[in-house]
Structures are given as C-alpha cells and as structure tokens.
Write the structure tokens for this entry.
Amino acid sequence: MSGILNTRIAGLTLEHPVLNASGILGSDPEHIDILASHGFSAIVTKTFTLNPREGYNPPILVELRSGGFLNAIGLANPGIQGIKPLVDRAKLLGKPIIISISGNSIEEFTKIAEVAEDSGASAVELNLSCPHVKGLGLELGSDPFTVFLVAREVSSILKIPVIVKLGLSDRIIESAGKALEAGARALTLINTIRALAIDIYSFKPILSNIYGGLSGPPIKPIALRVVYDVYREHRAEIIGCGGISNWTDAAEFILAGARAIQVGSAFLKNRKVVYEILEGIKKWMNVLGYSSVESLVGRSHV
Amino acid sequence: MSGILNTRIAGLTLEHPVLNASGILGSDPEHIDILASHGFSAIVTKTFTLNPREGYNPPILVELRSGGFLNAIGLANPGIQGIKPLVDRAKLLGKPIIISISGNSIEEFTKIAEVAEDSGASAVELNLSCPHVKGLGLELGSDPFTVFLVAREVSSILKIPVIVKLGLSDRIIESAGKALEAGARALTLINTIRALAIDIYSFKPILSNIYGGLSGPPIKPIALRVVYDVYREHRAEIIGCGGISNWTDAAEFILAGARAIQVGSAFLKNRKVVYEILEGIKKWMNVLGYSSVESLVGRSHV
Amino acid sequence: MFRSAKKTRIMILSEKYYYVEFSLLEDLGVEPRPLQFVNIWIPGVDEVPMSISQYTEEKLYVLFKVVGEGTRGLRDRWGFFGVKGPLGNGISLNNYSRVLFIAGGTGIAPLPLLARHAERNGVELDVIWGVKKSSELFDVKTLAPSVNNVYYASEDCIVGYCGRASDLAERFLREHAWRYDIVICVGPKNMLLDICRKAGSLVDVYVSLEAIVKCGFGACGSCILKPIPKLLCTDGPVFKCNEVYKHLEWNSQY
Amino acid sequence: MFRSAKKTRIMILSEKYYYVEFSLLEDLGVEPRPLQFVNIWIPGVDEVPMSISQYTEEKLYVLFKVVGEGTRGLRDRWGFFGVKGPLGNGISLNNYSRVLFIAGGTGIAPLPLLARHAERNGVELDVIWGVKKSSELFDVKTLAPSVNNVYYASEDCIVGYCGRASDLAERFLREHAWRYDIVICVGPKNMLLDICRKAGSLVDVYVSLEAIVKCGFGACGSCILKPIPKLLCTDGPVFKCNEVYKHLEWNSQY
Ligand SMILES: Cc1cc2nc3c(=O)[nH]c(=O)nc-3n(C[C@H](O)[C@H](O)[C@H](O)COP(=O)(O)OP(=O)(O)OC[C@H]3O[C@@H](n4cnc5c(N)ncnc54)[C@H](O)[C@@H]3O)c2cc1C
Ligand SMILES: Cc1cc2nc3c(=O)[nH]c(=O)nc-3n(C[C@H](O)[C@H](O)[C@H](O)COP(=O)(O)OP(=O)(O)OC[C@H]3O[C@@H](n4cnc5c(N)ncnc54)[C@H](O)[C@@H]3O)c2cc1C
Ligand SMILES: Cc1cc2nc3c(=O)[nH]c(=O)nc-3n(C[C@H](O)[C@H](O)[C@H](O)COP(=O)(O)O)c2cc1C
Ligand SMILES: Cc1cc2nc3c(=O)[nH]c(=O)nc-3n(C[C@H](O)[C@H](O)[C@H](O)COP(=O)(O)O)c2cc1C
Ligand code: FES
Ligand code: FES
C-alpha cells in the first residue's frame, strides 16, 4: 500500500487509517486471521474482562429496518487468558494489535492492561462506554471524573499507549479532556448508542437483554459531531468510529479530526469495505491534490 | 374515522393518534391548512418565541446519505403575534391545536404560554430540547431541575394542558419525572439529536449553523428506547416522536408506551404517511384481535 | 440528497447573464424534468434556488444574473459547490405537439432543458422573451438550438418588440393562441398575473413561480404561496393559472 | 432483517421429528437457496438456527427434533415468532445433473427445498438417510415427492440398511460414485468426517456443518470453525471437504 495512506496514531505507525471496531470478531485467534485477511491495518480485539464471560443468550444482534444494527452481546470473551493467543497470532501476521478492555473496578482495568502489555500488545483501548452492560458501561464514560481515574491509573502503569473509547453522553467533550489529561494518547469516538427494538406481534423487545447498542449508518452523523466537537476543543488524536460505511463517511471523519477510523457494522454487510474505503480515499486525495492523508485531518476546522 | 383509533392524550380527545411534529410547517395559517388536509388528528405549531426570529441562513436542512435529515432552522417564527391566526385557522378546520413554545427565561415561557391560552389553543408543548439553538435548547432539558422550574411555572398559570418535549440526554428519565411532578400532563419524546454533516470537497460543515438536529429513521430506535424507559419508570402519558416512518414504527412506539405519536421527517418524504400509518395500525389491530388502540399502549412491558 | 459539484466553466451570455457549468461528482440519480430546480450551495456563503438550465452526463448548467451575495458567489468563486435536487414538480411535454414558452428576464433560464425535452418528444417550441434593457439579451438558439421561432421584446425598444414580454405575448396570443396546446410562462409575478388574466381564457397557461426557498423539502414553510395553502418547493414551481391566481393577485397588492 | 411469522401448523413426522409451518407476515425478500438456514426467535425463550426445510409463498417450514428449551418452545408454543434470514451460503444445483444427498438424523431437514430446486433444474436426486432408531424415520417422499431413490439406514437394524448412514454411503459410493456429479452431506460431524475421508476421493463432496450460531452476521465469532479461519454463519454452512477437513478432524479429537 502506498505511503500516502500512512497513519500515526497513539504512537503506532499504521499502513493506512482503517481499523476494525472492537467486538467485530476479535476474541479467538482465528478471528484475528479473518480480520487481518480483510485488510485492516491494525486489529482491535473484542473487549476483554478479567474473567471469562458467556455473554447474553440470543437474540444478541438484530438488523433494523430503519438501518443499522442493534446488539447486546454482553461482552462475551474468554477472559485474560485469551489475550496472549490473540497477540501471538497478530504478531505472526505482522499486524499491530490493540486490546480492548473493560472492568468492574480500577484494579480490574489495570490487571487486564498489564496482561495485555505483558503479552506484547501494541496498545490498549479502554472501553468506558458499553451502552448495555450494567456497571461496565456508559455510566463510566459519562462521568468525566471516573474517566480520569481509570485512564490515569492504567496510563501510569503501562509503557504501551492507552486509548480511551467513549460513548455518547452529555459531557463527552469534558470526559474526552479528562482522558487526555490522565495520559490517554488517543480517543476512540464513539461506541454504540443505547436503543431498542420491539416485535410488534409478540409485544416483546427483540434482544434477550431488552436494550442494545445502535450501530451502523444511523449513528454516523452523531459520531461525526462528537469527533468534530472533541477535535475542536482538544485537538486530540482521535480514532473515529460509528456508522462508517464507505469512503465518503471516512473522509468526513478525517476532515472532522479523526487520524484513523474503525469500521464495525459495515464490515458485517460488506467484507470488501476496507479496500473500497482505501480506494475511494486515494481517488479523493487525487481530486483534491493531497499526497498525505494526515494532512487532511481536521481540515473542516478553520 | 372509526372509533377504534380514538386517543386521549393530555386531556384532549383525538380522532386518532397521529400528530405532526413541531417544526414541520406550522408557523403560517396556510401551513395549518396543509397539515390538516393531510390527515393529522391535531396540529402542533412551529416553536414560537416571544419575538419574531428570522432563523438561520440556508442551508438549513440537508437530507443525509446515511438516512434521515439534518436541520438547523434556528426557530424561525413570527413571534407571539403569530399565534392567534394559527389557532383561528385550526378552529375553522375543527382541529385541536398545540402551540409549541420556547423562551430564554421562565418569564418568556409563561408569557408565550398565556398568549397561547388566550388565543384559544388546545394545549401548549414546551420545547425544552432544541439541540442546535444556543440557550434555547438542550441545556434546558438535560437539567432535571430546570425542567421542573419551567414546567411548574407554566403549568401553574395555565388551565389548558401542558406537554413537555424533551431531547436525548443522560438524565432524560429524571427530567421526564420532574416535568410530570411539575404538572405536565404529557411528555413528547424526543426531539432531534445533535449531529453534523461535512462536505468532503469544500471541507465545510454543510449547514450554515454547522451543527444540526438529526431526525428521521436513524433516531427511531433511540427514541423508542427513551419512550420505553420513561413509560417503564413513570407510566406517563407519552407522545412518541423520532423517526416514525410507517405503521410498524408507530406500532412499536405504542407498545413501548406512547399514547400518541408525532411524525416529522417522514411527512417530508411521503405526504400520504398519516393515512398509511392509520391503515396499517387498523390491519395490525385486526390481526391481533384488538378493538381499541389505547388498549395496546405500553403492552411491551410485562 | 446533497451532491458535490465542481464549477468547471462560466460563460458571459450578455451584459448581466451568466451560464455556469458544474461537473457533478455523482449524477443526479434521476433525469430532471423541465422547470425543476436545484438549490445550489455556495460553501460559507448561501444556498440559492436555481432552475436547471441544462443537464447532460453529470454536467449541470444554471443561468443567472447577479442580485446579491449568493449569486455573486456563484459568479466569482471557483472550486466545489453543493447541489440539492432536482426539486419541485417541473412539467412534462408528453401530451403536446406545439408549445409556447414566454420568459421575462432570467425566466429564460429553464429553456435549454425544456427545448431538449421538446425536441426529444417532437414538440414544436416557440419562444417569446422580453427584458428591460436589450443589452441583457443573447441569442437564445446558442443554448437551445432546437427551438422553432423566437420573438424578442425589450423595454428600451432597441431589439425586437418595443415593450414588455407580456404585452407582446398578449398581442401574439390573441391571434395565434389556437396554434398552441399550452403556454408556459416564467418571469416576474406581475407578468405572470398579466398573462393569466389576458391569455388564460384563450389557451392552457402554466406559470412557474418564485418564492423564498429555504429548505426545499416542504418543511420550513418559507415558500408558502399565500394565501393559497401550497408550497412552491414541493407543490410547484409550476402551476396552472387557476391554481395560483389568488396568490398572484394577493402578492401584487403588496 | 427480522421478520415476524405466525406458527400455523405442526406435523409430527415420526417419533421425534416435527415439521412446523410458519406464515410469514412479509416474504423473505429473496428466494432462499437449498441448505441456507434461518434463526428462529422464540420470544422470551431463545433463538435457534434451523435449516430452511421448505419455502413457498410466504410459508416457511422447518423440520426439527426437540433437544432443549428452544426446540421445545418451537414445538409447544403458538402465536408469533421471529425469523432472521435466509442466512449462510447454501448451494446451487445449476451445474449438475445427478446429485446424492446423504443425511444423518435431522440432517434430512433441508431435503424438501433441495428436492424442489433439483426438480426445477432437472437434477436427479437420490437420498441416503440414516438414523439411530428406526422409529425416527418417516417416508421422505411425503415431504420431497420428486426425489428419485431413497435408501434408509437404521442402527437398530429394523428398517433399511443395518448400520450407520456413513457406512451405507461408503459402500454405495464405492460402486456408484461415478453416477453422481456431487454428493451433499448433512449430519453429525463424525459422519461428515467419515464421508469426506472415504468418499472424498471418489466424488466431489459438499458438507453442511453445524456450530453454535449466536448472531448470524459474522460479528460475534461464536460459530468459528476452529482451527480454520472461517465462520459457519457467513462462510457456510456448506463447504467442500478440503475446506473444512481440518475442522472436522480437530473437532473429532474432543
Ligand atoms: C424555483 C426558483 C428558481 C429560480 N431560478 C433562477 C434562475 O434560473 N436564474 C436566476 O438568476 N434566478 C433564479 N431564481 C432566483 C434566485 O434564486 C435569486 O435571485 C437568488 O436566490 C438571489 O440570491 P442572492 O444571495 O444572490 O441575493 P439576496 O442577497 O439573497 O437577495 C437579492 C434579492 O433576491 C430575492 N431573493 C433572495 N432569495 C431568494 C430566493 N430564495 N428565492 C427567490 N428570491 C430570492 C430577495 O428578495 C432580494 O430581492 C430562482 C428562484 C426560485 C425560487
Ligand atoms: C446452520 C444450522 C442448521 C440447523 N438446522 C437444524 C434443523 O434443520 N433441524 C434441527 O433439528 N436442528 C438444526 N440445527 C441444530 C439446532 O439449531 C439445535 O438443535 C438447537 O439450536 C438446539 O436449541 P435448544 O434450545 O433446543 O437446545 P439447547 O438447550 O440450547 O442445547 C441442546 C443441545 O444442542 C446444542 N446446540 C445448542 N445451540 C446450538 C446451536 N446454535 N447450534 C448448534 N447446536 C446447538 C447444544 O450444544 C446442546 O448439546 C441446526 C444448527 C445449525 C447451526
Ligand atoms: C456486534 C457488535 C459488538 C460490539 N462489541 C463491542 C465491544 O466488545 N467493545 C467495544 O468497545 N465496542 C463494541 N461494539 C461497538 C463497536 O466497536 C463500535 O463502537 C460501534 O459498533 C460503532 O461502529 P459501527 O457503526 O461501525 O459498527 C460492538 C458493536 C457491534 C455491532
Ligand atoms: C425541519 C425541522 C424543523 C423542526 N423544528 C422544530 C421546532 O421548531 N420545535 C421542535 O420542538 N421540534 C422541531 N423539530 C423536531 C421535530 O419536531 C421532531 O422532534 C424530530 O424531527 C423527530 O421526529 P421525526 O424523526 O419524525 O422528524 C424539527 C424537525 C425538523 C426536521
Ligand atoms: S422552502 Fe421550506 S417549505 Fe418550501
Ligand atoms: S454466529 Fe456470530 S459470527 Fe457466526
């Protein structure tokens, strides 16, 4: 891949700016093979918790008529002993790997982060934003002070970069600032948005967990706004995430201030999405006469 | 229209549960003619402020590739002197009319509300939630205490019912509770969600106001969740609003707890949407064997 | 839907009239109908409604004169613009064989696309075009080569008929109305009212109106055709005289 | 996409096998291919993957036996269910003229739809079906009248060949493999492994696998065919033997 797409984010140098979003595969070594073979420049794992989690019973994912997906997987993951095999597989494939982690307490966060670092991970992403898991979720990220505490503790013990992932909340700009202040090298914005789907014949919410996280095209304009706001306020390193489905979406996020992007739902609909995004971005840069994608970051801000 | 669709909300008795959403026309008497002729059971006006507002310069509305619309009209309205002509026109047409109002202070709210009542309006809807107008907006609705103050003052001086319209925020369940406590007879949930669109060639945000409110199908699952949450917590009278585009959407909102619904963006795409929703709802009730739409309200809660 | 467009050419047609070519980065998705319009966004400046003058293979043309900030930007700026549309109803020529098009001033803008549709449908199209000053005029056949007869009028009496387009049209139609299936009329409101009054009984007259278009989607209501409950942006801009007669009258009182 | 369906009929096919008819409130949108599956949601209970047994005019049929909560719900509950799909790759019979279908147990489920496609494409379809107890058997031709020859096997030796379907298949194919373009095999993993091992060299063998399907969209990864980087729900359930041989071996070690 040509150098014009090279991207530096959180101290990592990537071939291009397109990563997978956490939770799209990423809990088994074979998942890493699949993600790598579809062109992502770095792999983000499923969110890991200290102990294995079964996750919720199906239905855990439903495609919505109004666009996008609703999911409540329940952070199914094999726990910390699952981390090393993933890192080893990514190393074998020559891909940087970012371990997504979540915990019930600051100690849990730091413990998992240490396992990630010891396993040889390239970075960790603190998931402070899952909108449908009690106690592990959005509550964390919507309180700027809690964000600060978690980010600071983890940052202070790790040598590898710490990325903080936030979800939509009233005070997200403030939370983002606190994460940076606490030592986060980059921010991933945003997670899914808490939502619901009801079956109109059985009268029951469709997901077994009732609530789920909305992802895909519906949340794109909202995620883009958050990236724009946080970049405007903090000029932070941002990984844009939320509904990115094609190269024009990716371009908007770059202009709003994202140095890199993550693709989740769109990958479920189109396994070629990474290549299509990269081709589009290259053509776009050509039309505009730019020779480095990094020079387009944040250009919507005057 | 047959009695099975009759709906009581906030003390009003409506022929059926489908109203227009505020801001879809509704600032000129001729607008009222248009809305009435397309079948809405009651008319909700554009949000009125004390003084006339020009609103923002175009672009004020853009249809998004990812679905839905982004708007920042800037609450363009003729000010309080515009209220009476609307009420008179609605009366002429035999339609209940709900005056949407917003203000910079509690005094402004009460002043406009009094004009509405004196003009003969059927109800007022307090817009505490416009996501893109500084000081008139979401800040109000996201603070439960402010919601309480505004709703209480207005409720205490009016004889006609007060409806409170809220936007998405972290504490929306609490805000909803406060509005009810303060005397609101019903809640309209939800307003648009703050979002952004950027033109990838000129690098500029498309709306003249930069930010806008996302409406239409993308916000439906989020609005539905809010209705579900607020109904679960408060068993309130709710007017569901947000992305309702067809009868299945309407059915979901009814099951989630909405006694009535408002349709905005879908009306821009399909001028027959009210009739289609009503037809669908009637067939649905037939399949299920229900003879009153009110008996389906909130049935997704066990 | 919003589409990006690059301004690729501008032609000066006469003292005041400009013809701009936009290369769309993506086609309009549908074939525009004659007399439909687009909202053109001049980034950072304004968004203005403009008739679609011509559309071929991802190239969109508009014809305008400069009246304020927006149209000045359209003339002077280069680079990328935004295009919303096609908007409005437009008109179809399917059922006609002879059509008269009457334009006042920039009302000439939609003619090129109309002429192409006329040619394609084997419709004979005559044109009456009137302006205030004859220096505004240009040879209509350069943009619409397929039109049949063109009659010019200027109020400064230098070129063509001496007087207003509506006067010429009235005289012309008194004699020739029977030759046309319909008359399409685009121009200032008083001209449209005049023609509806005087020719409306002789032949079917369609008028294309203007109003303050802000949203283009039937949402904001700024384009309401008072006192008629119709919106220009979704119900129009093309109407039969009787549909909007009250609006033309009402407006001319102010 | 999620669709609602009303359970309108249930048939008891044999001691353990049920055949349920769902009336979809809206059609599937696409014609399902043989061996595709759906996730069926039993509201408030579970969501289970089921081969599409048959699909005609908004009626969907599944054939199953009861193994736990989900399938019990499928049998005992009435009213409305949810259907997600069609999911997976399925198989197309376009290029073949003679096909052998080998089923073990509930592997017989996709046969009716397969047979209909075979008939439509003029493909001759023979069937080998083996079960543990012969009381599980029913007459295949009641659901798939167009199939050519049907050979039964039962491990209790009461009906048909005495032994496992894979043993019968192996013996049968040693002699007749040349008559078939492909063999399609659905059943327990050890049976599939057996057939791949023993018949894979004689004829093209396709196997349809099972795995724990949770999301059905290639997101959760629960259906990963370890140690192969393939997902059953999006890459499968149908594979050629060589594509999944390592998975069949790997799994049989546990
Ligand atoms: C459906 C439609 C099609 C049109 N087609 C053409 C065309 O093909 N060629 C052409 O030259 N002009 C056309 N116009 C008129 C054109 O839109 C206005 O001249 C333009 O918006 C003025 O913008 P501005 O920023 O340059 O001037 P401004 O500074 O905004 O205003 C200058 C003058 O134009 C009037 N005006 C402003 N905005 C509008 C508006 N949105 N609609 C109508 N009048 C307005 C104002 O009342 C004022 O008198 C059309 C208008 C409509 C509604
Ligand atoms: C693509 C596919 C097609 C299938 N088609 C059919 C069919 O047509 N007819 C039929 O009878 N069965 C079919 N199955 C198997 C069927 O899905 C399981 O029997 C069913 O999910 C069991 O659910 P339960 O709740 O009744 O049992 P549970 O209580 O959930 O489990 C009982 C047993 O079934 C196994 N099981 C549970 N869930 C699954 C799952 N999602 N996938 C595979 N095995 C599981 C468990 O390991 C356990 O041993 C298919 C499975 C797949 C993956
Ligand atoms: C099926 C699924 C599972 C997810 N699991 C996780 C997770 O474990 N951790 C996390 O941080 N985000 C998770 N997410 C959120 C995504 O990482 C991403 O933030 C969100 O889906 C928005 O991106 P998208 O619109 O491109 O999908 C999940 C999303 C989906 C659809
Ligand atoms: C063009 C437009 C203008 C709006 N103006 C107002 C307004 O003045 N007051 C208000 O309370 N809501 C306003 N809204 C929000 C709608 O009333 C509604 O809450 C929102 O659009 C969600 O509904 P929908 O998805 O059906 O459009 C506006 C929405 C649109 C699209
Ligand atoms: S321009 Fe907004 S309604 Fe026509
Ligand atoms: S079932 Fe989730 S990936 Fe296949």
Notes: The first helix of chain B runs from residue 29 to 37. Chain B touches chain A through 45 residues (CB under 8 Å).
